[in-house]
């Protein structure tokens, strides 16, 4: 066994998984529209090249809000257990800078321009 070789290899930075590499990196610049639906919120965005994109916001439990950025939000997630929470009571309010999505435990602030997300706990402390 080549211990020096193992140590040298362990010191190398990890390679990111190929399915997480950006294929065509873009930055979301602004929110164009926000449409509340019965079980989710559909957001239309614009990126730094002027192309439109989509974000789906789905409050699924008082302390869990799922985000899907990009196409394919209707597909079932490979990351979720079949028994994962699927719905909770929520509301959305518009304000001067964008919108806020509320559950009983958290709020998600969505700024129009520049695009920004902030997750806050029930005390108003920013968590993300």
Give descriptors for this structure.
128 residues, mainly beta, 41% strand, single chain, extended, 8 strands, four-stranded antiparallel β-sheet, 1 helix
Question: In brief, what are we looking at here?
Answer:
Helix content is 6%, strand content 41%.
Give an account of the 3D structure.
The chain has 128 residues and is mostly beta strands. The chain contains one helix and eight strands. It has one helix at residues 3-10, and strands at 28-36, 41-47, 52-61, 64-69, 91-94, 98-102, 106-111, 116-121. The strands form two sheets. Strands 1-2-3-4 form a four-stranded antiparallel beta sheet, with no helix packed on it. The N and C termini lie far apart (45 Å).
Strand content: 35-45%
Q: Give the helix level as a range of percent.
A: under 10%
Largest sheet: 4 strands, antiparallel
The geometry reads as: extended
Radius of gyration: 19 Å
Spatial strand order of the main sheet: 1-2-3-4
Protein structure class: mainly beta
Unreliable stretches covering 5 or more consecutive residues: none
């Amino acid at each position: 066994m080549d211990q020096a070789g193992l140590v040298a290899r362990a010191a190398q930075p990890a390679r990111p998984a190929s399915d997480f590499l950006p294929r065509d990196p873009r930055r979301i610049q602004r929110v164009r529209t926000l449409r509340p639906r019965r079980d989710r919120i559909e957001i239309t965005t614009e990126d730094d090249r002027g192309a439109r994109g989509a974000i789906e916001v789905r409050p699924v439990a008082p302390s869990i809000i799922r985000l899907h950025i990009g196409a394919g939000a209707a597909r079932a997630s490979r990351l979720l257990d079949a028994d994962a929470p699927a719905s909770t009571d929520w509301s959305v309010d518009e304000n001067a800078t964008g919108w806020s999505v509320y559950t009983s435990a958290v709020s998600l602030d969505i700024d129009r321009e520049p695009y920004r997300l902030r997750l806050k706990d029930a005390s108003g402390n920013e968590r993300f």
